[in-house]
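User: Okay, second chain of the day. Same drill as before: sequence in, structure tokens out.
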Amino acid sequence: MSTARDVMQPNPECVRTEETAADAARKMARLGVGALPICGKDNKVKGVVTDRDLVIKVVAQGRDAGTFPAGDLNQQEAVTIGADDSSEEALRLMSAHQIRRLPVIDQQRLVGIIAVSDLARNVPEPRVGDLMEALSAS
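Assistant: Same drill. Structure tokens below.
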């Protein structure tokens, strides 16, 4: 059975809590991604910000993305997985929380991120189908 470490994308960038929503948007554009982990000064994952969060919580509210703190874009408590946990556990967490990206931690530090596409390449197809069904219900 594969682990989260086996299927994750290593060395993800994160947006710092003290950076701005505009900084997050620029990083997403540069990296070609739709989500970034939010990390505090202690390098621990505080949440995940998505491009949708930027639109709904900043742009649509008429806020200034250049001054709006990225740390204020946190959802609830961050859902993470340990690097040595199974890929099946990653699948379960993503289904249960209806999330498309899952930060991977090792000793509370961000070491990777798992996207649905990572699981699709590494987990049996019926299980990934269950995840897709859970995500489309949200």
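DSSP finds six helices and seven strands in the chain.

User: Thanks, on to the next one.
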